[in-house]
Design brief:
globular; about 550 residues; eleven-stranded mixed sheet; disordered N terminus; disordered C terminus; single chain
């Protein structure tokens, strides 16, 4: 989840997330009808006037106008920025595949073009691939609580990076988030109440109609799996095929009244334990190889773990430049999302810190060919979704104790995931349209992909969601990282393609391997990398 995006840059769920201001029950249009009330009014289908995003470029752009409040389609509207890549196989097109890159807060108009080449070849050939910036995000009508970028930068610099250490930094963190909440409440309080996952699911159904599809074909990763599960249960008869990759446990995310909660969203999801397990594998595999492959290796798994622990203790009192303990812990957890080259890059950064040198800046992804390659993506955009719909602690005084509990079970990763929802202690809005189940409305069969060692959405969450949904098949990726899409497996790609094209599911119990193992040997000049990705096994 960011989850700061799922792809390097933005879109998992790392920096900000979830709590509510009051205990409020809101009936959706579907729930109103089920309760005997009239169904929600129908919103007009938006018109998409496609044009090349950049003259001569491969992507098309459009804007869609949708109601701010789907229960009031004649009222205020908001704009959605939409991007498309046409199917590349002439005469073989199946239809449109909608893609959500996670978050909340992941801008589809940026991230889909960045990772377009990672979609399975057959999927690119047979589908127009469409993504969008969800309401509140990026180039759509956005939650933006600052008058200028300079104000936003100044606010970001007013709080500690990553995990706050000590009473002073904790106080600075909560002061900053109170300030953010005041700014957001002043700027556009009405918008803050209408950026929920259910709102986005209703937008998605309008986009489906706008491209002329009778039923939805969808791929969602990370938080995008919660959006997909929400859509499938709000519009169960409108699902053609849906792949959910790196799954959020929907019940753990959404259950409970909005108000003070005993645990944060991510501690309920088990993101802390999951990240700790991946970090342990990172250090074990690093220590089991040479420094040529893993720069931080100390020549053995135990020695490398001890080296890491010593570095983190040292950084608590002696930062290296602006690389504090808190910033380093967050960088490590985020760096575990993408195995290649992410793990190698984390090892290099840790080794530089070990030697008392600041890490080299991470390379920025190439700007995609869209009109707004650098939209504003402030912390408040993720907070606006999570803090308004997922129960979290509202008392700042609860966080130090929660941090210590999480650290006892998950070490440094526990501290990182505890503070991911600190913005929610002050968040000023509650979602007007919030969906929290049930999750088992009958749909077409869905395909879930779960990675055994995922640092954000635990494999247990994929199993839990598969059990909640009415008809879901779980495909296991025996590997590492957050999402199979950005940690490729030819085996997973083959099963996904077959399912999305003709609805064929993998056999029950199917397990795949990744193409590239952690800390791969450098490819010699002139050599051809073959990769793995073969089917490992199936069981009945």
């Amino acid at each position: 989840m960011d989850m700061a995006g799922v792809i390097p840059g933005r879109g998992h769920w790392t920096a900000v997330v979830a709590v509510m201001v009051a205990c409020t029950t809101v009936l959706t249009g579907t729930e109103r009808a089920a309760a005997g009330g009239p169904p929600a009014p129908t919103a007009p289908v938006p018109r998409l006037d496609w044009r090349p995003c950049v003259p001569g470029g491969p992507f098309d752009c459009a804007e869609a106008t949708v109601p701010l409040d789907h229960a009031d389609p004649g009222g205020r509207t908001v704009e959605l920025a939409v991007v498309r890549h046409r199917a590349t196989g002439p005469g073989r097109r199946v239809g449109t595949l909608f893609f959500n890159p996670g978050g909340p807060g992941g801008p589809g108009t940026v991230q889909m073009p960045q990772i377009y080449g990672l979609f399975p070849r057959e999927v690119r050939e047979r589908f127009d691939i469409v993504s969008w910036d969800p309401r509140g995000v990026g180039s759509s009508t956005a939650v933006d609580c600052f008058a200028t970028r300079q104000e936003a930068t100044a606010w970001a610099e007013s709080r500690p990076a990553g995990v706050p250490v000590g009473a002073r930094q904790r106080a600075d963190t909560f002061t900053a988030y109170r300030d953010l909440a005041r700014r957001c409440a002043r700027r556009d309080p009405e918008l803050l109440r209408h950026v929920s996952t259910a709102d986005s699911a209703r937008d998605l159904d309008l986009l489906r109609q706008a491209v002329g599809e009778p039923r939805l074909t969808y791929l969602g990763i990370s938080y995008g799996t919660f959006l997909g599960a929400t859509y499938a249960n709000l519009f169960p008869g409108k699902v053609r095929a849906m792949t959910l990759d790196s799954n959020v446990d929907a019940r753990a995310y959404a259950d409970g009244a909005l108000g003070d909660a005993p645990l944060t969203t991510f501690l309920r999801l088990g993101s802390d334990r999951a990240a700790a397990a991946v970090l342990e594998r990172f250090l074990t595999l690093c220590g089991s190889t040479s420094t040529t492959r893993c720069a931080f290796s100390a020549g053995g798994a135990r020695a490398t773990r001890a080296k890491f622990d010593e570095l983190m203790r040292r950084l608590r009192t002696h930062p290296v430049g602006d690389w504090t303990y808190g910033r380093t812990a967050a960088r490590v957890v985020n760096g575990l999302y993408v195995v290649d080259p992410g793990w190698t890059d984390v090892a290099r950064a840790l080794q530089r810190l070990w030697r008392g040198r600041t890490p080299e800046p991470a390379p920025r992804p190439a700007a995609p060919p869209v009109p707004h390659p650098d939209p504003y993506l402030g912390d408040e955009q993720a907070a606006a979704v999570l803090c308004a719909e997922s129960p979290d602690p509202r008392d700042p005084g609860a966080y130090p104790g929660l941090e210590e509990r999480a650290a006892a079970r998950a070490g440094d990763a526990g501290r990182v995931w505890t503070w991911a929802t600190a913005a929610c202690t002050s968040w000023p809005a509650v979602a007007a349209d919030r969906y929290s189940g049930p999750w088992n409305h009958p749909t077409a069969p869905l395909l879930l992909v779960g990675t055994r060692y995922d640092p954000a959405t635990p494999y247990a969450g994929a199993r839990a969601l598969a059990g909640e949904l009415a008809d879901a098949r779980l495909l296991t990726l025996d590997g590492y990282g957050h999402t199979a899409l950005v940690n490729p497996s030819a085996c997973v790609a083959a099963y996904e393609s077959r399912y999305l094209i003709d609805g064929t599911l993998p056999p029950p119990g199917t397990t795949c391997h990744q193409d590239t193992a952690p800390f791969p040997a450098p490819t010699p000049t002139g050599a051809v990398a073959t990769g793995g990705g073969a089917l490992a096994r199936t069981r009945s």
